[in-house]
Specification:
Chain lengths: ~425, ~260
């Protein structure tokens, strides 16, 4: 307990002038016309409001939160790039920040020259870079490309080289901003390995990320920033869960508001419109409109239609795609041989799934009315989107069958 | 105290300074066919243009006019180049300002020093011309060192101020470009001081750029010591200007990352 803290932040407040955010630069003209308009309290936007942090040496802290919650600002203050308006910030030991990879890279210079340039910018001496050069090049995996101008690199190569230099600074405290999100699969594994290596070596890490599964994997402690204040902190699983719930609730509210305006916004739409779909609603089991559904819970899709020209036995259908565009399920009343009876001039068709056994994620809905021969009267692509949440984290795929696991020793019968 | 800290930080980062200066110099012509040769070709071609206009078309009556003009033109190129580039040093710094931590005075310093290195590299051409036109090189050339030192001090102070101003008022750079043109013509570079009517001469001495131009002309062309009295005053003025520039720069630099 008496060990000195690696990162200590007390009562941190950061405000930005609103004027800056409007990117309304002061010009000589505006300065002459209204010289006293600056520095009014009303023009200030508080981005961080009374943040306290204490990170012991060798611990990994992750900061999560929605966009604009102040995460990156906090990291930049820790890095010393921004000055706090109030409060104390102290970071012990040599610090390296993975905020910008490849800062100062000159596109016309070779990878080799840029390693020296970037390394110097990050605070390494020429001797230190020389000593680590082989290691840096090998880790970046560029081979002979190290002699080629950086402008000829793919973005992945560029990032790898920048990352390689930054992690070879050999810091005591490492600040990481979203770098796990760039690069390909192999690169993210490399990043994770490197972070693990840092952890084993007893370095202190402060991580800002939207990748919650990575956060769960690495962090010893999670701080959730919401609107510039700490909404929750502590044990990763608990904080992440709380965060997820709030995000889901907000998504739901936003989606409901859009839905309540009753607009039909399809990405694409075709058909002669003999039968027209005029509204689509997503409902939960109780008939309440929602855009976030629990995995394994019920889902209702309602569509209001109008018959414009007499059409023979129209079939109503739905299609659910995941965010990768994979069709997860599709069917229509004709395929299901559902007997709807006579189709009046106006009405509402309801599709009810008793169990929505999809893995958590975002899904898109297509709806259509077709003739019995399959000609489209009205076809709407991506007319609505909804999210599936809940259940354990980390299962993959599309379909989550209701399931359980068991084990029996050899020799026993099931 | 603040000045001392400002300069110590600069000196402490000499490795970074030299790395960025060589980036600036090497990067400028990288990818061009002639490459670094442009460092020498540019002043040469510049000289040709001015020599053509003022010796052939305007027919200025003066012995070795082209060489004389060159003596003042090269330091002016250093000066105006430093200010033009220096004004944008912070605003063009991009991620170096917003995402990495190091003393930001390095950026304008790099612009000034890179321009100065360019100036030094063009001196052999100047010497070749002086000798070619039969102008003797004298021990008075030693005065180059103090003159250049004051010149760098003065230029850096201005670059520091301009780079700060440009962060908050992006018009600075555009105003500067036009102002420098005016400044160039009121400075006795294309014409000797003797062309200036007697009653205006005192006014010329009030122009720092003129004092530098005259000093370089003295030590390169006329083979005499520069006016130490004027230079001493200018050195004093430069230190005061630098002090003011450092105070302003250090006060505003915490906003740079937010403003860009």
């Amino acid at each position: 307990m008496n060990q000195p803290l690696a990162i200590e932040v007390a009562g941190l407040v950061k405000r930005f002038r609103r004027e800056l955010l409007k990117s309304d630069y002061t010009t000589w003209k505006s300065l002459l016309l209204r010289p006293f308009r600056r520095d009014r309290a009303a023009d200030l936007l508080t981005v961080l409001d009374g943040i306290d942090l204490a990170v012991g040496p060798g611990r990994t802290l992750a900061v999560i939160g929605e966009n604009g919650s102040g995460k990156s600002t906090l990291l930049k203050i820790l890095a010393g790039i921004y000055k706090p308006d109030a409060g104390q910030v102290s970071v012990q030991g040599r610090m390296s920040s993975l905020i910008e990879l490849g800062a100062g890279f000159h596109p016309e210079f070779s990878g080799r020259e840029n390693v020296f340039l970037n390394g110097t910018i990050l605070g390494l001496s020429k001797k230190e870079i020389n000593r680590r050069f082989e290691q840096i090049v090998e880790y970046a995996g560029l081979g002979q490309f190290i002699e080629a101008p950086v402008r000829t690199y793919s973005s992945g190569m560029y990032v790898r080289l920048g990352f390689s230099v930054a992690v070879n600074v050999d810091p005591d405290v490492l600040l990481v901003d979203e770098v796990l999100a760039v690069g390909d699969e192999a690169f993210s594994h490399k990043c994770e390995d490197k972070l693990n290596e840092f952890k084993r070596a007893g370095k202190t890490i402060c991580l800002v990320s939207h990748d919650l599964s990575a956060v769960k994997k690495f962090a010893d402690e999670v701080v959730w920033l919401d609107g510039g204040v700490v909404a929750a902190r502590g044990e990763p699983a608990r904080v992440i869960d709380a965060y997820r719930q709030v995000v889901a609730r907000r998504e739901d509210e936003v989606g409901r508001r859009a839905a309540s305006r009753g607009e039909l916004a399809a990405a694409d739409r075709w058909g002669q419109g003999e039968v027209e779909i005029v509204a689509v609603r997503l409902l939960d089991g109780g008939g309440q409109p929602h855009v976030v559904f629990a995995s394994g819970g019920p889902l209702c899709i309602e569509m209001d239609y109008v018959v414009n020209q007499p059409a023979e036995a129209p079939a109503f259908g739905i299609g659910i795609k995941n965010s990768a565009g994979v069709l997860c399920y599709g069917c229509n009343t004709h395929v299901d041989q559902a007997s709807l009876g006579p189709v009046p001039q106006r009405g509402t068709v309801r599709f009810t799934a008793q169990r929505l056994d999809l893995v958590p994620g975002t899904y898109l809905l297509d709806v259509a009315v077709t003739s019995s021969e399959g000609r489209d009267y009205d076809y709407l692509v991506q007319v609505a989107s909804f999210a599936v949440r809940g259940g354990p984290d980390g299962d993959v795929g599309i379909y989550r069958p209701p399931h359980d696991w068991s084990l029996r020793p050899r020799g026993e019968s099931a | 105290m603040l000045l001392q800290r400002h300069l110590t930080e600069l000196a402490k980062h000499h490795g970074l300074l030299s790395a960025l200066i060589s980036r600036e110099l090497k990067g400028r012509y990288r990818g061009s066919v002639l490459g670094f040769l442009w460092t020498f070709l540019n002043p040469l071609l510049l000289l040709c243009v001015y020599a053509l206009v003022f010796s052939v078309y305007f027919r200025i009556q003066m012995d070795n006019y082209a060489v004389f003009m060159f003596c003042g033109l090269l330091p002016w190129v250093f000066f105006s180049g430093s200010l033009n580039e220096g004004a944008g040093a912070i605003t063009d710094g991009g991620s170096l300002v917003t995402k990495v931590l190091f003393p930001l005075q390095v950026l304008p310093a790099v612009k000034v020093l890179a321009a100065f290195v360019n100036y030094l590299l063009s001196l052999p051409i100047l010497f070749a011309f002086l000798l070619g036109w039969g102008v003797a090189l004298t021990p008075k050339l030693l005065a180059f060192f103090p003159v250049a030192a004051v010149h760098i001090l003065f230029t850096y102070a201005l670059a520091l101020l301009l780079s700060t101003a440009n962060v908050f008022m992006r018009d600075t750079r555009h105003i500067l470009g036009n102002f420098l043109t005016l400044w160039f013509f009121v400075t006795p570079i294309l014409y000797p001081l003797s062309q200036v009517p007697e009653k205006w001469r005192t006014l010329v001495y009030l122009n720092p750029a003129a004092v530098f131009a005259l000093s370089y002309q003295d030590l390169f062309f006329w083979g005499r010591w520069p006016r130490w009295d004027l230079l001493g005053l200018l050195a004093l003025g430069s230190v005061v200007l630098l002090l003011a520039a450092v105070v302003i720069f250090e006060h505003y630099k915490e906003y740079f990352a937010e403003k860009i």
